[in-house]
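INPUT
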Amino acid sequence: MTRVFALVDCNNFYASCEKLFRPDLKHRPVVVLSNNDGCVVARSQEVKALGIQMGGPVFKLADDIKRHGIVCFSSNYALYADMSDRVMSLLEEAAPALEIYSIDEAFLDLTGVDNCTNLLAFCQALKRKVDTHTGIPVCIGIAPSKTLAKLANHAAKQYKATGGVVDLMAPERQVRLLALIEVAKVWGVGRRISKKLQGLGIHTALDLAQADINMIREQFSVVLERTVRELNGIACIELEQVPPTKQQIICSRSFASRITDKTKMREALCKYVTRAAEKLRQQKRKAKVVNVFIRTSAFSADEAQYSNSLLADLPYPSDDTRELIAIVEASLDTLWKAGYRYAKAGVMLLDFYDAEHEQGELFSSDRPQIQSKKLMQVLDKINQKGIGHVYFAAQGTAPVWLMKREHLSPAYTTNWKDLPLVR
DNA sequence: TCTGGGGTCCTAGGACCC
DNA sequence: TCTGGGGTCCTAGGACCC
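OUTPUT
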């Protein structure tokens, strides 16, 4: 049976979430900024029309922001995650199988659906449903492979006449669309690969689809080879209904202002590892390897640069914040070099083990701390319930390196105090 | 002054084994 | 003096994604 995939992608997701609760901004240009209000990470339609690029640093856009009256928001992940849940649960109701691919995208497996109903009509109805129930506009692309579904979605966004839904099941429609799309827009083709492809005379998605598969494998990799097959309508990438268990957990941040003091750095790293340990326990895993990194800013070319990381092994897998803090502190003692202006740091947890099924160490005298599990459970419970906030002294009490979030919108959907009022 | 954060997968090359 | 070939495992780094 021919496979049928649909990709549902929310339009300008973060910007749409912000506009939802601010009807006064309906036709105004809106951008959402990254952590520290550093870069533009989402743009409303009006902003895209102005030609403002994604990922650009905000300070370089100061003129544009003023001239066009662009409204800026700091990223409000609590709001976006909640709106995402609402969209995803509607999709889940409608489709036989669903893969949540990112906060604003989901693949649906619609194989066999065309036996009972028209695919295009089915997806148009789904789009309307999401719109009426959540207010978030989406576009949908339908195709026999995920990579083609991505391109169909791209076309649905780009061409107004499609009404936001494109059915790319027919091979002749695939050829026509692929000829119009630059190769760099293909899922899995990034900056480096597209540059190399251009050099080989491959400019459009159709060129890539028709390229010699052996040459692609030799010159690039099995990954791009798979992309070529997918462009030819052969489904190689399956729907992943169950998210795979994580291999690593990263907590890292750029600092709102540079750090030159070791104590401040230690506090920051302890905060990150605490957060990472919370995520670890949520996933019911223990980690045996911890990677700590600190670095200066690569953008300040005139400044002295230093970047280093250290992998450290624990004697046994752990999810105990105290043990992880200890190893992070020891790592910092090795890594730290005074005299630099540090811009970013982070902690990575690796080499996971199942927290429920522990492997004892026969010859080692190292033993996990007694009562560790109970203590961590109590800690997590207190911090979750908002009864209060318990934290380790190592984090410090004056977080001067905290994030800059000057344009934060209220938690409209996740905090009673912030519920929008209708008068 | 100010340039995100969190992930995955693949490959090449070195270490090591027989 | 002559110094193989095949395999595995690990790691660092590159490339990609949203």
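end of record. Chain A has a mean pLDDT of 92.
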